[in-house]
Every structure is written in C-alpha cells, then in structure tokens.
Amino acid sequence: MNSAIISALAAFGGSSVGALGPVLSNYVLQRSAAKHELSNRQIAERETLYSDFIKEASRLYAISITHALEDLDQLVSLYALVSRIRLFASQPVVQAAEDFVKQIVMHYGEPNLSVEQIRAAALAAKADPLDRFSFACRKELQDIVRRGLTPVNDSPRRKKWSLV
To answer: How many Cα atoms are found within 13 Å in the side-chain-facing hemisphere of 155?
Structure first.
C-alpha cells in the first residue's frame, strides 16, 4: 500500500479519536451531573414529605391520647400523607408509617390519658413513638446519598428499577 495513504489514514484516525475524546468525556460528565441532580431532588422531596408526616402524625398522636376522635378530616390528611409516601418510599418506611397510623387510630378508641399518665409515659421507654419511622427514613435517605441513585423499592407490588 502507498505510504501516503497510510499516513493520511493514520492522521484521519488520530484526529477522529482526538475529536471523539471530548465528546465522550462531556457525555459522561453530563450523565453523572444529571444523576447527582436527580438524587438531590429526590432527597429534598422525601425530606419534605417525611417532615410533613412527622409533624402531622405527632400532632394527631398527642390529640389521640388526650381526646376522642371528633373530626375525621384529621385522619384523612394523615392517610393522604401515607399514600404519598407509598408512591416512592421503601417498604420499611411505608410499614413504619402505616403502623404509626394504626397506633393513632387505636389510641382514639382507648380512654383518654391524664397529664400525669402522659408525663409517666414520656419518661418511660415510650417517649418517642415515631422513632421507628424516623430511623427508617434516615436509613433510606442515607442509602440514596451513598448510592447516588433511586433506591430500589422492595415492595412486591412495585417494579424494581434504578438508574445505572
């Protein structure tokens, strides 16, 4: 083969590889940045939702141990938050939220507690009824940060997927 053709092909190949390098590098960087942004957005959305649930559930828990159920709308708003959590949370978080709602409903059916009984319960091991939910949320958020991608739902009713 002619040495001029070989030189031309080598120059063309070298320049093609040289031009393709920045394109591939940019693609990898953009993809990484998009995954990071998605992860940050998911964390922020979950933190807001979990915070709303903790605020509403705490309020209703306090009411449930001191009063009878007077307004069903209070429970409806809590069930709506649990349904929103069910949309994307892991199974341990969903289960902890559902269990806490059941605990609130159960307290509405029991006799009201006195201030002394509430104080005694607060000083006992029952001081934080939302600890299971809070710990499940923290673990899920830490998993998202550690993996940097959407957590795989372990619910049998949902498809398992993740960004790779």
So the answer is: 16
State how far the Cα of 139 lies from the Cα of 135, in Å rounded to an integer.
6
Q: Rounded distance, CA 48 to CA 67, Å?
A: 28
pLDDT in tens, 19-43: 778 878 888 888 888 888 888 888 8
Domain segments of the chain as ranges: 3-147
**Which tens digit of pLDDT belongs to each residue from 99-131?**
999 999 988 878 877 778 777 777 776 667 888
Q: Where are the alpha helices (DSSP H) in the chain?
A: 3-66, 72-88, 91-108, 115-123, 131-147
The rounded distance, in Å, linking the Cα atoms of 151 and 42 is: 10
pTM: 0.70
